[in-house]
Structure formats: structure tokens, C-alpha cells
Write a structure and sequence with these properties.
The chain has 16 helices and 5 strands. It is α/β, with parallel strands linked by helices and about 350 residues long. It folds into 2 domains: about 180 residues, 3-Layer(aba) Sandwich (Rossmann fold), CATH 3.40.50.300; about 130 residues, Zinc Finger, Delta Prime, domain 3. The longest helix is centred in the last third of the chain and has 22 residues.
Length: about 350
């Protein structure tokens, strides 16, 4: 595939058509779940806008809408390779800044937006188009969003802006109205497995990772390329499996550690809780006789243990509690009480016995 993106063919086609159009947009909103290719396609867009071999991109003669192949980046020329390595002077990524203590801030502030406004006023330095990627855009403060409105409404002709958001509802309606929205969705297992195989992953491991990915090719590729990441995932699931056997004081200690982890890396804790929810979803599938549908097939023995020990209403209730905790944390409730409440709501063997499990 010319764009070298796994899945979300409609999103890729939408970008290609927009570049081939007579009046391509100057601002995009890439919206959808985490790790499905939004950031990758944003870089491909930046490459297409600056590639030495593309035809019809910003600043060049427009193509007919059906001639989209010529706007795909070659991925081989100097601009394409420099953009891929985050070395291109005209491609700027705005992310969460790091505090003095080494922890990421919780929002993208207005000062960062002011810096973007200064940079986009300059002509391109080594390419033909300046590209600004804001990721995650849903963590822009309201003040920052309001400050950014004029730039979005009247960007210089040599500038393209890409906002990447998992929670687009956090963006102001005035931000939405100034962007071309491109929707991303979870990617089918077969496409992820094929991408892993093309990346050199051996077949059995590719099949397992594609199944575990939950539609997120970025997650699968990270796991395939970093054995330590796969080990961390297994440790997270071991905790999901063992939490039910912990006495109260150890559950509280776990909540304390999770609070510390949350404060140092919020997104990692959100991912951990989603993995927990996936574990107990698999437990429910085993209970219902649908083992073929479990994601964590490499831990089927432990899943069978939990499915036999705990009543289905308890399992369902805990899944809801995990997802509610994620929402509460995203809404900026105090993490310590939220996580303490969560660990206390884990299934209890005594209660399960009383329910007749």
C-alpha cells in the first residue's frame, strides 16, 4: 500500500482525496481510538505535503479527485526520511511538556499554542509546507483552544494543522467547525496479523498479538518489537488475576502504588485499566462457553481458574467498575480514592460462594 498504513483505508483515502482536490483543507481533526494509526497517518500527510515526488499536494497544481495515487509520499526521498525521523524543520509536533520532576503535565497550555502561532507565521525552511501536529489535542486547555481559533480559521497558505484526539468531545465546537474531520476505527484482526507478518513476526506470535491487540495495530507492533513490553503486559494481567486473592491491606497498598504510577504516566494507567477490563471480559467469555473468543489466549489456564471461582454478576460488576474508574480519572477526580474504591470492588471468593458460583 503506497501510504504504508495498517487498516483505516477510508481515512487514508479521505486524505488522498483531500490532497488531490482543488481546495485542500488547511486543518484536519483525526478522531478515533488510541493506537489505531492516527499519528502515523499524520506523519504520512506531512510527508506527502513535502515529498519530492508527490504531485497535486498543497502548493502544487491540483489533480482530478480520482487521481489520488500521485499524492502518496514515496517514503524514500530526503524530506520523507527526515520527517520519519522527526528531523524535518517544517514538521512540528506539539505534545505534553515534561515537568521539572520528569513527569508529564496534564494538559497542553496556552504558551505552547503561542509558540505554534509564532512558528506558523514563518515561511517553510526546508520544504514547501509547514505541518503542525497536536497530539493529544483533547488535552488542550480551553484557554489554549480559544487562543488557537484564529490560527485555525485563517492559517497561512503554507501551513497544514493536524489535531489528533481520542476524546474529541473535549474539543470546543468552534475547533471542530474549523477542521476537516477524519474518523479512525479499530482495525480487523486479519489486517493487523498481516502487518505483523510483513514486519517479520513469526506466524504464531503474529496471530496471538493480532488477537490481543483489540483492533490497535500500534499496540501490536510495539509488543512485537519490544519483548519487555510484552512482559509488562503479562505482569498487568497477572495483577488483574491475583487482585481477587489479596487481603484488604494489600489491596490498599496496590491502590497506593497505582496512584503513584498514575501521577507519573496517566496514559499508561488508563491502558493498564483497559487491560484489566479485557481480562475480566475474557473470564466472562470462558464462563459462557465461548473460549474461542478470548483475547488473552496465552493465559487460558488462569482465565479458566477465575471463571470457575467467581460468579458472573461479580465479574460483570467489576468490569463496569474498572471502566467507571477510567472515566472518573479522566474527569480529574482524586486518583487515590478512585483507585482504592476500585480495588475494593474486585470479586470476592466468599461472596461468590454465597451466590452459588
Amino acid at each position: 500500500m503506497p501510504w504504508n498504513i495498517t487498516g483505516n483505508a477510508r481515512a487514508v483515502a479521505a486524505i488522498a482525496r483531500s490532497l488531490a482536490s482543488e481546495n485542500p483543507p488547511h486543518a484536519y481533526l483525526f478522531a478515533g481510538p488510541a493506537r489505531v494509526g492516527k499519528a502515523s497517518l499524520a506523519l504520512r500527510l506531512a510527508q506527502a505535503l513535502n515529498c519530492e515526488h508527490t504531485v497535486g499536494a498543497q502548493g502544487l497544481a491540483p489533480l482530478r479527485p480520482d487521481d489520488t495515487a500521485d499524492v502518496a509520499p514515496c517514503l524514500q526521498c530526503t524530506p520523507c526520511t527526515r520527517i520519519a525521523k522527526f528531523l524535518h524543520a517544517d514538521v512540528q509536533t506539539v505534545q505534553l511538556e515534561i515537568n521539572d520532576d520528569g513527569e508529564p503535565k496534564t494538559a497542553i497550555a496556552v504558551d505552547q499554542v503561542r509558540e505554534v502561532e509564532r512558528s506558523v507565521a514563518l515561511n517553510p525552511f526546508e520544504g514547501r509546507t509547514r505541518v503542525v501536529i497536536i497530539d493529544p489535542a483533547h488535552l488542550l486547555t480551553d484557554e489554549a483552544q480559544n487562543a488557537f481559533l484564529k490560527t485555525l480559521e485563517e492559517p497561512p497558505p503554507h501551513v497544514v494543522i493536524v489535531l489528533i484526539a481520542v476524546r474529541e468531545e473535549k474539543l470546543l465546537p468552534t475547533i471542530h467547525s474549523r477542521c476537516r474531520r477524519v474518523e479512525f476505527r479499530l482495525v480487523p484482526v486479519g489486517e493487523i496479523e498481516g502487518a505483523l507478518a510483513a514486519d517479520g513476526v513469526e506466524p504464531d506470535r503474529a496471530a496471538l498479538l493480532a488477537r490481543l491487540a483489540g483492533g490497535r495495530p500500534g499496540w501490536a507492533l510495539e509488543m512485537a518489537r519490544d519483548p519487555r513490553a510484552f512482559e509488562r503486559r503479562r505482569a498487568v494481567l497477572e495483577t488483574a488475576h491475583s487482585i481477587v486473592s489479596l487481603p484488604i491491606h494489600k489491596r490498599m497498598s496496590l491502590a497506593e502504588k497505582m496512584t503513584e504510577d498514575f501521577r507519573s504516566d496517566r496514559e499508561a494507567m488508563y491502558s493498564q485499566l483497559v487491560e484489566w477490563a479485557g481480562w475480566w471480559r475474557d473470564v466472562m467469555l470462558v464462563q459462557s462457553g465461548a473460549e474461542d473468543g478470548v483475547a488473552n489466549a496465552d493465559m487460558l489456564v488462569a482465565l479458566r481458574e477465575d471463571s470457575a471461582l467467581y460468579a458472573e454478576p461479580q465479574v460483570r460488576s467489576f468490569i463496569h467498575a474498572i471502566l467507571a474508574a477510567v472515566e472518573h480519572l479522566r474527569a480529574n477526580v482524586q486518583p487515590r480514592p478512585a483507585l482504592e474504591l476500585l480495588v475494593l470492588e474486585a470479586p470476592d471468593l466468599a461472596v461468590s460462594a454465597a451466590l452459588g458460583a
